[in-house]
């Protein structure tokens, strides 16, 4: 209690105002955190500075007693600035964490995929032998991506339920945390829903957004039912633009790349090996194939 005594003794309220004021003043100045602050700055503080700062000190004192809903997420800090003690409101760690989570969420656009993928973090993905190569390649990608924004993507192939979409969600959220824009698109549903865009201009805009985002993840390629039009005017256009601009693009598929070629050949009413080969060239350029194996985790 050493340094506080000189301040307590010099209260100008002692005579002029009643006992209540004096008691409150003592309570404020004896508050452990305020006391600690005064001890820390005792060389620079004078009784005048303390007297002039009583309202800030009182506010600080109250903030420890009650949680003010107006300032929730922030905690006040005492600052000695010139001849007065003032308050500075700094965000609490929990608020910073919440803001970070929100910005990650904002940077990932899920198209036809479950909202829960926003919460997947690479750090939570367990290491299993079947997914180790994919995790290693994703990590290499991330290291490279932090240096330049154009490394080649990956094509994760493997059976249903091994965790391809889950891994890619972890990747999406990590890239989003780097403050880059990610689109994560479930291709079969997207292709099936294209007709809902037919009557307006929104399809061209949507294709442009998908073609130009920082990171594109195309989920379940090979499971979509393509028409000539959706293959050549939508999918091929998106992949061509990403190739031209060397924009990172990832895929997941139940098919190996070799099988995907066969899938692209056949649309509803034609067989077109040349178009299929050209589409496959783009997939090859954009992504390196890596197999994910393991048990079906959907059980
Ligand atoms: P795929 O895309 O290969 O078909 P998913 O990524 O959809 O597989 O994974 C199948 C299920 O297993 C999902 O419900 C997913 O949430 C869950 N899952 C996948 N990997 C993990 C993991 N490492 N930890 C916990 N759950 C997982
Ligand atoms: Mg999947």
Looking at the structure, the CATH topology of the largest domain is: Rossmann fold
Sketch the topology as an H/E string, one letter per element.
Answer: HHHHHHEEHEHEHEHHEHEHEEHE
Number of helices: 14
Largest sheet: 6 strands, parallel
In the CATH hierarchy, what is the superfamily of the largest domain?
P-loop containing nucleotide triphosphate hydrolases
Secondary-structure-based class equals alpha/beta
How does CATH name the architecture of the largest domain?
3-Layer(aba) Sandwich
Instruction: Please give the radius of gyration in angstroms.
Output: 30 Å
| Strand adjacency order, main sheet | 3-5-6-7-4-10
Describe what you observe in this structure.
Strands 3-5-6-7-4-10 form a 6-stranded parallel beta sheet, sandwiched between helices. A two-stranded antiparallel sheet has the order 1-2. The protein has a two-stranded antiparallel ribbon with strand order 8-9. It has 2 domains: 88 residues, no CATH class; 195 residues, P-loop containing nucleotide triphosphate hydrolases (Rossmann fold, 3-Layer(aba) Sandwich). The protein is built from 14 helices and 10 strands. Helix 13 packs antiparallel against helix 14. It is of the alpha/beta class. A hairpin with a 2-residue loop joins strand 8 and strand 9. It is elongated. Bound molecules: adenosine-5'-diphosphate and magnesium ion. The site of adenosine-5'-diphosphate has 13 residues, from helix 9.
